[in-house]
Input
Amino acid sequence: MSEYVPERLKAVRYPKLEHFSEPNVITTTADFIFSWARSHSVFPFTYGLACCAIEMLSSGFARFDVARYGMEVFRPTPRQCDLMIVAGTVNEKMAPVLKRLYDQMAEPKWVISMGACATSGGPFYDGYNVVNGVDKIVPVDVYIPGCPPRPEALFQGLLELQGKIQQHKFVAETPASSAAGEA
Amino acid sequence: MSDQFATDAPDEAVKLALRRIDEATARGEGSDVEGLAFNQVVVNMGPQHPSTHGVLRLVVTLDGELVKDVIPVIGYLHRCKEKLAEKRTYYQYIPIPDRTEYVAGMNCEWGYVMTVEKLAGIRPTRRSEFIRVIMAELNRIASHQVAVGTFTADLAPLGTAMVFYMFRDREYILDLLEEVSGARMMFNYFRFGGVRYDLPDGWVEKCRDLMKRLPKLIDEYESLVQTNAIFLQRCMGKGVITQQDVVDYGITGPNARASGVAHDLRRTRPYSVYPELDFAVCTENHGDVFDRYQVRMNEMRESVKIVEQALDMLPKGPIQIGSLRAPYVITPPPGECYTGQENPRGEYGTYIVSDGSRYPYRLKYRDPCFCNLQLFPKLLRGNKIADAVAISGSIDLVLGGIDR
Amino acid sequence: MALEIGTNPMDMDAIAAHLVAAFTDLQDVRVQEPDTVVARCDKGRLHELAQGLKDDAEVGYETLNFIAGVDRVKHLESVYHVYSWKTNTYLELHVEVPRGKAELATVTDVWPAADWHERESWDMVGIRYLGHPDLRRILLKDDFIGHPLRKDYVDLIENHPHV
Output
């Protein structure tokens, strides 16, 4: 049975176990190795507001185990997290709290908007108190539709996010000296 | 945008707490803790907090570790459900009560559907009444599993095994409910006069099989914590709800039954086919945290009995009145109606005012958690902050119902 | 002493007759099957009536279930739904207040549960309860303008800073 490699990862060449059987040198870029490590060890922030929070909880427990993706460390404080999963409806009273908690997270940080309410207001879109989507307050990286999305849908969103994190570059593309030289 | 939590502009609840501290200082109060100077601080718990079970904010006035006063601030999940009722037809509104107490969706839908049926004079079919009872009781077991599971998860932050076992078994129940209605949590299953889908082939056998296994699983949960000295010490004698509190504040559900008040709407104001079913009302005597936990465990066992009886008594017949398609547009005659239903958390009711049109004129929820939460300041006063977490977990709050 | 339910079971018509005889302030008393008596009362007489209903020896309505504020366009209405342990029945009491001066006496000293229910009624419909210990908004943010469950409520841009 051949190994399944998703399309976007075909350009990536992971080190294999046989490479480590003898003293060896692995060449890679700093971007790749750090992003790869980051994507497989994300600390989510328990920002469950409403019904989607129960599905998020279910995905953390035995049947839909989120630990196999390295994301079981749900920390309640934003200062220790990289990923904020907004699960539930955001209303006008909650919005300043959301912004404040997002600001307290350290870079690099990502936001997943889980559920119809966080994406666009959901079934309560015409409420007088409901913010139609959390992207009006914080920038969102992955949207997961559903009311509530199944834990498998949450996992698809998390995998998409993993792909996005692996494209994160923190090393500058153009060296500063050559840019100054060309200018 | 205004940041209501900036320390130089405290909001109303914090201002109230600070005012009360000033009044206490003016009265010349000393500290309750021996040998310490009077120094009460206002600490904010929430709205994002792992132990408040949702977006509940508690403005706690602490004297050392003792809680002097608690001001609960709610409304962080207010989703305008009562106003939305005026913009949706009765049929379009059915998915919304699901999201009130989202852990017990079937029960909440039943509360709404029952009131509209009473207003419009619709009598559901007999088979659908039994199916409704089965779904409601299965959801009761699932809801208690979440309630007790998260309660023990609060005592030691996710450190108890109990929550893992309970959520594992909750998945079996959600599998059954998903087979019938198509969704794991927001079922949208009840209709006026019946239910949407009939039970699929083989469902009754699977349900019976699970009901045979559940009592042993419930015993397994109890064996995990029942003999643990730390659990018992943290739970016994704390957060006592007296019978006078039950009368004064309208406490219903397991919180009231743990104080010895045998008020169970399935028995005192029976509805549907509950008069034909044989089950006991679980009560305990002391009204403390441990008794509330015990009542919920016993209720799970009683629900298993109810489901088994209902499966045995399930008649054949239509699941909806009239043709298979539910009445999409109903216009109940003008009037008001209230029905209460036994939710896993207490008496859940809807009060609907109808003006004869397709839209409800006014819909008001009587939510059990809203009434139970009023008791918080009284319950938490005088306890240590760690006990406050245990007590608030045992009251079993779902913010979707409190804030609507 | 355990709290008993239904120690004085009475027929619904008997309850209605007893209420009519005992309380002159109750108007339009009628029975709504199966377990509710519906009545009306004037806003000035609410507090004494509430105290009397609670203390009544035969049908003591000791527990408040909820208070609903309803906007009836011509006037506002406050609906009190109370429960009697002795007879195991409900009473639904409607009190009308004019729109221009929507004030009503509080019943928190009679039924302590009224505290938050009256706050919610003030928040949503705008009926002011005089004598309430702490009448402020409960579900909406403190600087919200307007009372949403009124029929003439218009969504204001000031209430939506995050649009």
About this structure: Chain A touches chain B at residues 46-51, 53-55, 57-58, 61-63, 76, 88-89, 91, 93-97, 99-101, 123-124, 126-130, 147-148, 150 (CB under 8 Å). The mean pLDDT of chain A is 84. The first helix of chain A runs from residue 30 to 39. Residues 44-166 of chain A form a domain with the Rossmann fold fold (CATH 3.40.50.12280).
